[in-house]
Amino acid sequence: MGEALSKARPRPVELTRDTIQEFMQRYDTVVSDLDGVVWTPVRMIPGSKEGLESLRAAGKRTLFATNNSVLSSYKKFERLGYKVERDEVVFPAIVIADHLQQIGFKKKAFVLGVEHFKSFLREKGITVVPERQCPEYLEENLASYLKAIQIDPEVGAIIVDLDININMLELSQAVNHLRNNKDCLFFVGASDTYVTFQDNKALLGPYHFIRLIEQCSDRKPIVVGKPGSMMIENYLKKIHNLDLKRSVFVGDTLMQDMGVAAACGMGKLLVLTGVSQLSDLDDCDPSLIPDYYIKSLAEFSNLLAPAGKS
């Protein structure tokens, strides 16, 4: 196989013709990640649509949970040609907006995130600041920097997600609101460190900015995105009445995807089309070791086809 696993550690079961029936009998619902499993930021992963259709045809409910609030997942599903209902796909912006609406949040939310993320908060009637995507250019001296840090008493929540245009001033604003208002809520959407794509290019995630805000404000956030459990427990489980013990999470990362599965008591299926590979299991936290692994979603088309037709 070329990717040896330590004998002292549990071994995930590869999904094959010999093991697929046990897997199918064990789970009623498949909850899947999107990036690295169904598609990448630049292309669809070959065979992913057919794999999902095979699971549906076999009677499995298919739902989706992604940390990516940058672009519309619904539009990408349209391009894929795979029909989903809006409540079958969840990402952090939806859950945070719903939560703030449910608790009667009336203050402003200071958001480090992209416009697509902010739009879901605005749709729920939440006032989002800063209103502009990029601030004005500051003179490069500490007096200008200090003067620009404004603390708004109407800000009642700091929300951090992937923000491609993040800057020092807005990071400092977030820290100072949390330091000066102990009642200010603190939410985190995505918390990825980085993701590597083609040409070995690495896209930095918000993890280190989140840690910076935590350390400087001495505050711990509510983690809404994976590996936090809110997208599953507070949204998909509630809406679709999921039995999590009979649900499996399909993902390409150990920390986020296998992590949320472990947190929610779900089965764990690692797909090898994205970030994590079998060699990563040698030194990961044992709770993140998947129950099963598969090369790609496309494999389900072959594994679930009648004998002789794969």
UniProtKB/TrEMBL annotation:
Indicate which residues the UniProt annotation says bind Mg(2+): D33, D35, D252
Highest taxon of the lineage: Eukaryota
Give the co-factor note: Divalent metal ions. Mg(2+) is the most effective.
> What keywords does the record list, in alphabetical order?
Hydrolase, Magnesium, Metal-binding
* SUPFAM superfamilies reported for this sequence: HAD-like (SSF56784)
Q: Which residues form the active site?
A: D33 (nucleophile), D35 (proton donor)
Q: Name one GO cellular component term.
A: cytoplasm
Give the required cofactors. Mg(2+)
- GO MF assignments: metal ion binding; phosphatase activity
Could you tell me which InterPro entries the record lists for this protein?
Answer: HAD-like_sf, HAD-SF_hydro_IIA, HAD_sf
Q: Which family does it belong to?
A: Belongs to the HAD-like hydrolase superfamily.
What is the name attached to this protein's record?
Answer: Pyridoxal phosphate phosphatase
